[in-house]
């Protein structure tokens, strides 16, 4: 996060004001609260956006603990999780340029779970509710179609000598409605209704494709260049974005933004990587790109583009200077300095 | 399926008796029933095992239709779905040799779904139940540990000049208990309890590892050779096995077996591939290997091994003779003949 902050300070015309707010498992261990009310209140009252640092989460059940980012997404109604996954410019092989749009508030992430114990055998059975609403599904589909069109325009405006990966914007709707015909059926049906709505005009501008989530993971690895925008319910989106990250070298470069109607939280897709904590070699690229993505969704596409370009230059031209996850011998600090110089 | 049948006829010492039983979407379209009761009754009364051919399923909701393989797994209590994924012997790169054990009866596959309409807005919300029981989780974990040990023994008995991929058997438990602390928490806890049970003796013989499902997909693509046996709840198992298939060249080579206490159904992992239907170029390897896997779980490891070896020889030595999904110009029939010759 420190790297992202320095880059924002250097890149923005006016130095932004920062507030440090607490959340996470370490805080929970000290205080019993993972996401304090003050954090949410401060965000709502004093901030226009936020960056969320990678937190560690216990893999085992800890009574009372619950992931603060999942709670924040819901409490701030950040209904879209936007995850661009692109191979570095100038790399070898066919380029990858995907945008994953993950529904961010429902599915199994409503975290409505319960456990029952059989009075006779004493054996336990646990249940979770999966929620898919028409409203959230339409809303996320609409964002996906809008963004596909916007990406198409940017590509058309860019250097036309570069062969176009996606001649016409394409949206892949990911679901598993062959098994979950009601919930994923509703997700699918809502996306199709938005697509076919003549008032919205998506049908002529965008190619629509569907993919069952299992086949999606398969195809992503067989022909990743075939995807443009993919839209998915929450859990599928979580899984496919980690999969897509594997295609572009490292989770350490993949950014995300949690986007709502009036707030954005930038968040690197990676976790806290306890194996390298404190060694100073964590890749700052995901955090820096998440800061840029945050600016983009705040409307400052210009500064965002400058940051992206500086990062891309470092990734493309200084392989040895990158952090160990990308095969280099650089550090968090040296990569950050290189990005700052390139701004 | 025809290919698998021919191979079984040629490989088994006694020619087996076959019964053709109906199921699937085409049957549903003709008769309104996807899985006739007679099919289940015949299986239970007259058969010792079965092969399930790839069926097409509609991606949209068709009133009354429901996937016959999902229903069969439940009605025959085939609680384990076993999916070996290995790179061809003698291939380049570090070899992959994974066995995915997918829980086969619960999770979101209980297909308990409902839809509500808001009386004021008219908007719909759909719900699905996800079930994770201690009993099914313990049962599937136990199978995973048992199979890891068995694989370890086979490796030890095999040519020791080959460097060992997994010096000690390893089981990776896949879950998402950082979000689903109750359901995936119970899956995880049950697997750990089986592992730590001194009466079962797994702890000294097997290395246990945990992986969140999103990271699992990431790691599978970054270091697939690191996995030995992976065990997962139903839906995660579905997704990671398609992902693993992408690592070994084609879904057209990946077999599975649906295993219960007293019945086995072999089933290729791939679907019906409508794009190549009727062209005679569908890869028969997944179906042939599924037949061998079925024999293996019936106790005839010897015939199974002969079939596997014949398939491996064709895959390794005749690249041009393979089907188009593997880059060759062979046909279903020519590949089948090659396997038959190699038996
Ligand atoms: C940390 C975890 C709760 C989170 C999620 O599952 O959403 C993470 O995996 C992510 O992708 O942002
Ligand atoms: C066809 C479908 C219902 C099935 C599943 O999801 O289990 C398939 O994808 C599989 O992996 O066997």
Automatic annotation (TrEMBL), chains A, B:
Residue ranges annotated for the Isopropylmalate dehydrogenase-like domain, each copy included:
1-339
Keyword Thylakoid assigned to the entry: answer is no
UniProt entry tagged with the keyword Oxidoreductase = yes
Instruction: Output the superkingdom of the source species.
Output: Eukaryota
The record's annotation in InterPro entries points to: IsoCit/isopropylmalate_DH_CS, IsoPropMal-DH-like_dom
Q: Which UniProt keywords are listed?
A: Oxidoreductase
The leader peptide range reads none
Q: Which residues form a coiled coil?
A: none
Q: Which GO terms describe its molecular function?
A: homoisocitrate dehydrogenase activity
Its top-level enzyme class, in one word, is oxidoreductase
Family matches, as PROSITE patterns: IDH_IMDH
Q: What is its EC number?
A: 1.1.1.87
The Swiss-Prot or TrEMBL record describes its family as follows: Belongs to the isocitrate and isopropylmalate dehydrogenases family.
Know the name of this protein?
Homoisocitrate dehydrogenase
Per the record, the gene is LYS12
């Amino acid at each position: 996060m420190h790297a992202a902050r320095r880059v924002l300070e250097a890149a923005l015309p006016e130095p932004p004001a920062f507030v440090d707010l607490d959340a996470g498992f370490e805080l929970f261990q000290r205080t019993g609260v993972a996401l304090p009310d003050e954090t949410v209140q401060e965000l709502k009252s004093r901030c226009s956006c936020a960056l969320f640092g990678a937190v560690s989460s216990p893999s085992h059940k800890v009574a009372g603990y619950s992931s603060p980012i999942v709670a924040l997404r819901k409490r701030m109604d950040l209904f879209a999780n936007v995850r661009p996954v692109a191979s570095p410019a100038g790399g070898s092989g066919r380029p990858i340029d995907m945008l994953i749009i993950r529904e961010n508030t429902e599915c199994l992430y409503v975290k409505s779970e319960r456990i029952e114990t059989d009075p006779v055998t004493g054996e336990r059975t646990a249940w979770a509710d999966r929620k898919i609403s028409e409203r959230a599904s339409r809303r996320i589909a609409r964002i996906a179609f809008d963004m596909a069109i916007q990406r198409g325009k940017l590509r058309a405006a860019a250097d036309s000598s570069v062969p176009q990966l996606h001649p016409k914007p394409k949206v892949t709707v990911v679901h598993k409605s062959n098994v979950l015909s009601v919930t994923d059926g509703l997700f699918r049906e809502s996306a199709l209704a938005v697509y076919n709505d003549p008032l919205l005009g998506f049908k002529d501008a965008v190619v629509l494709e569907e993919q069952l989530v299992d086949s999606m993971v398969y195809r992503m690895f067989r022909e990743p260049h075939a995807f443009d925008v993919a839209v998915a319910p929450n859990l599928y989106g979580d899984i496919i974005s980690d999969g897509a990250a594997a295609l572009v070298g490292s989770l350490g470069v993949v950014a995300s933004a949690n986007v709502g109607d009036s707030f954005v939280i930038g968040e690197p897709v990676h976790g806290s990587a306890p194996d390298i904590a404190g060694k100073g070699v964590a890749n700052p690229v995901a955090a820096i790109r998440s800061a840029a993505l945050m600016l983009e969704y705040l409307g400052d596409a210009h500064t965002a583009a400058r940051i992206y370009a500086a990062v891309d230059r470092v990734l493309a031209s200084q392989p040895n200077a990158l952090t160990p996850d990308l095969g280099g011998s650089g550090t968090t600090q040296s990569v950050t300095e290189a990005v700052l110089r390139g701004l």
